[in-house]
Amino acid sequence: MTTTEAAAQSLSIGEVAERTGLSVHTLRFYEREGLLVGPVRRTSGGRRRYTAADVEWLLICVKLRESGMPLADLKHFAALVRGGPGNEAERLRLLDAHRQRVDAQIQALEECRSLITWKVGVYAEHLARGEADGLWDPTA
Predict the structure, then answer these.
(1) Whole domain around residue 102: which residue ranges?
(2) Is residue 120 exposed (0-12), middle (13-18) or buried (19+ Cβ within 10 Å)?
(3) DSSP label of 48
(4) From CA 36, how far away is CA 89, in angstroms rounded?
(5) Rounded CA gap, 49 and 31, in Å?
(6) 21-45 burial, b for 16+ CB within 10 Å, e for fewer?
(7) H runs (alpha helix) in 10-87
(8) Mean pLDDT across the stretch 2-11?
(9) Are 59 and 20 in contact, with CB atoms under 8 Å apart?
(10) Does residue 70 sit in the same domain as residue 138?
(11) Which Gene Ontology MF annotations are present (predicted)?
């Protein structure tokens, strides 16, 4: 691939922000903190240029962060990926521990949803009857 072809396939920081939902500030922060798996290339004028692989990695980062992965864990995961083959078991342990935390959060949210659904039913029943008696009574 020629330099011109590579430049045509690379993305500006604004384009990457749009594709990932991350702000330009966050993209710069991720780069400074070592959260990317490869160095971000720069133009001769110093402007960042990202590859499709950079965007794919950032989309993974977005999901890991949205699911509550701490930055320190994400940074460690990125370092492991940058390290290349040979540390897959450690990557698996890190991801599995995070999955277990997400599973616990989902369970807690399902319990919350169940309580809310029950309370919605109580209110709907009272409204259908045209009365408000007992709405604050948890045994109603």
Answers:
(1) 88-140
(2) exposed
(3) E
(4) 20
(5) 12
(6) ebeeebbeebbeeebbbeebeeeee
(7) 13-20, 24-32, 52-66, 71-83
(8) 63
(9) yes
(10) no
(11) DNA binding; DNA-binding transcription factor activity
Residue 42 pairs in a beta bridge with 48
Q: Into how many domains does the chain fold?
A: 2
Note whether 74 and 20 are same-domain residues. yes
Please check whether residues 69 and 112 belong to one and the same domain.
no
Q: For residues 28 and 31, what is the distance between their CA atoms, to the nearest angstrom?
A: 5
| pLDDT bracket for residue 11 (50, 70, 90) | very high
Residue 16 pLDDT > 60, yes or no?
Answer: yes
pTM for the full model? 0.80
Q: Rg of the chain over CA atoms, in angstroms? A: 23
Do residues 108 and 138 share a domain? yes
pLDDT for the residue numbered 121: 94
